[in-house]
Write a structure and sequence with these properties.
about 375 residues, alpha/beta, Spore Coat Polysaccharide Biosynthesis Protein SpsA, Chain A, eight-stranded antiparallel beta sheet, seven-stranded mixed beta sheet, globular, disordered N terminus
C-alpha cells in the first residue's frame, strides 16, 4: 500500500476502492447467483489496509439477508440495468479513489487490482479503465447522440448500423474502473442531466455502453487495462494463480466444468504458483466438452470475423434474431447439425459455421467461395 493509500485509511469516511455490482434478485435463479457471488466466487480481499466499499446496484428489490449490513443496497426504481452505474456516478457523493463496476457473474482480486492501480495510475487524473472491447454502439445510443447534435462522435460517419472494418466506438465488455477525478468530471459535465433524461426515455440495452458514452462526452480519457479480463480465464487469475496476469475475470458460471473447484479455491484461499498447476487443479479447459444447444447458445456473444477482418460483435438472441451486429446478411440464426446457421433478412442462409471447439465456429460464407466466416466466443 502506498503512502496516499495509508493516509486514506485514517479517515473512516474515505475509501480506497468501491466495487459496484450490477445485480437482480427478482427471480429465484438471479437471487441464487448473487448469493453465490457474495458467499464464494465474487471477490477476495485479504489486505485489511485497503478500505473497500461494496455497492449493489438493483432496481427496487428488498435487501436479502445474505448481503452484509455494512454494504450499500442501492435501489434505482424504474431504472434499467444499463443506467444504474451512471445513476450512481451522477447522484452518489463519491469519496473513493477508484470505483469499479462489475456484474454478478465475475470475480475480482481486490488486493491485486488496488496494488496495480496504486503502482501505475493516479486517481487524481481523470480516466476510465476498460477491460476487453466491443466494437459498435447500439442504435438507442446513436439516436440519443444525434438528438443531442454531438459532432464527430462517429468520426465522419452519421450511421454505423451497417459497418465493416475499424469500429466507430470502443468500450469495455465489462468491467470498468473510473478514477475519483474522472467521476468528478462526469458529474460536472454541463449536459449530464440532458443525457441522463434521454437515456431514461430511450432505455439503452447495454450496461457497459452508457457510462462510456458519458465519459467520452465529458472528455474523460478511456484507457485499455490489460489486467482486466472479460473472459473466463481462471487459470490466469491472480486469486488462484500467484503469477496470474489478470486481477479480474468475467463469466463465472455453473456451466463451467470446474465451477466447484474454482469456488473451493476462492473460499479456501487456495493459490498455485503457475498456470500449469492451476489448469491441472481446474481439470484443464474450464469449458471442455460442453454440449451445445439452442438454449445454451441463446444470449451468448461472439466476435464475428472473416479472412483476417473483424466485422463486429454479435449476440445470438433467444428469439432467433441477431443482436448488436447489424447487417442485412446477418439477421437471424439457428443451431442445428452441430453448426450455427446464419440467415439474411429474407431468411436465406448466408453462413454455415461448424463447431471447431467450445469457443469457435467456422465455415464458408455462402455468397462467396473465397470467404470464410468465424464466430469466436467472448
Amino acid at each position: 500500500m502506498n503512502f496516499i493509500g495509508k493516509l486514506f485509511n485514517m479517515n473512516e469516511n474515505i475509501f480506497n476502492f468501491t466495487l459496484c455490482i450490477v445485480a437482480c434478485t427478482k427471480k429465484e435463479k438471479y437471487a441464487a447467483r448473487l448469493k453465490e457471488y457474495v458467499s464464494s466466487y465474487g471477490y477476495r480481499q485479504k489486505d485489511k489496509l485497503i478500505k473497500t466499499r461494496f455497492v449493489y446496484l438493483v432496481e427496487d428489490e428488498p435487501r436479502p439477508d445474505f448481503i452484509p449490513q455494512k454494504d450499500i443496497w442501492y435501489n434505482c426504481p424504474g431504472i434499467p440495468m444499463s443506467m444504474r452505474f451512471l445513476k450512481y456516478l451522477k447522484d452518489f457523493d463519491n469519496n473513493s479513489s477508484w470505483v469499479m463496476q462489475v456484474d454478478d457473474d465475475s470475480s475480482t482480486d481486490i488486493d491485486k487490482t488496488v496494488e496495480i492501480l496504486n503502482q501505475y495510475y493516479d486517481f487524481n487524473d481523470p480516466m476510465m479503465l476498460m477491460g476487453g472491447r466491443n466494437t459498435d454502439l447500439e442504435s438507442g445510443q446513436q439516436r440519443i447522440l444525434k438528438s443531442m447534435k454531438i459532432d464527430n462522435f462517429f468520426f465522419e460517419s452519421n450511421d454505423i448500423t451497417n459497418f465493416e472494418g475499424i469500429p466507430y466506438f470502443t468500450h469495455a465488455w465489462e468491467p470498468t474502473i473510473i478514477s475519483k477525478s474522472g467521476i468528478k468530471k462526469i458529474k460536472n459535465w454541463k449536459r449530464m442531466e440532458e443525457y441522463y433524461k434521454l437515456c431514461k426515455n430511450t432505455k439503452p440495452i447495454f450496461t457497459d455502453q452508457t457510462p462510456y458514452v458519458a465519459a467520452r462526452l465529458a472528455k474523460v480519457p478511456i484507457v485499455e487495462a490489460y489486467f482486466l479480463c472479460p473472459f473466463e480465464w481462471a487459470q490466469s487469475y491472480s486469486c488462484i494463480n500467484r503469477n496470474g496476469r489478470y486481477s479480474h475475470i468475467h463469466y463465472v458460471t455453473d456451466k463451467w466444468k470446474s465451477f466447484e473447484p474454482f469456488k473451493k479455491a476462492m473460499k479456501e484461499n487456495i493459490v498455485f504458483s503457475s498456470e500449469e498447476e492451476t489448469k491441472k487443479y481446474l481439470s484443464g479447459n474450464i469449458n471442455i466438452n460442453r454440449e451445445e444447444s439452442t438454449e445454451s447458445l441463446s444470449g451468448s456473444t461472439w466476435k464475428f470475423s472473416g479472412n483476417g477482418k473483424t466485422y463486429g460483435m454479435m449476440r445470438l438472441n433467444a428469439d432467433g434474431t441477431i443482436g448488436i451486429y447489424s447487417n442485412d446478411n446477418e439477421r437471424f440464426w439457428e443451431y442445428k447439425e452441430n453448426s450455427i446457421y446464419i440467415y439474411n433478412k429474407e431468411n436465406k442462409p448466408t453462413s454455415i459455421l461448424k463447431k471447431i471447439n467450445d469457443n469457435k465456429f467456422e465455415g464458408k460464407f455462402v455468397l462467396s467461395d473465397n470467404m470464410t466466416h468465424r464466430l469466436t466466443r467472448t
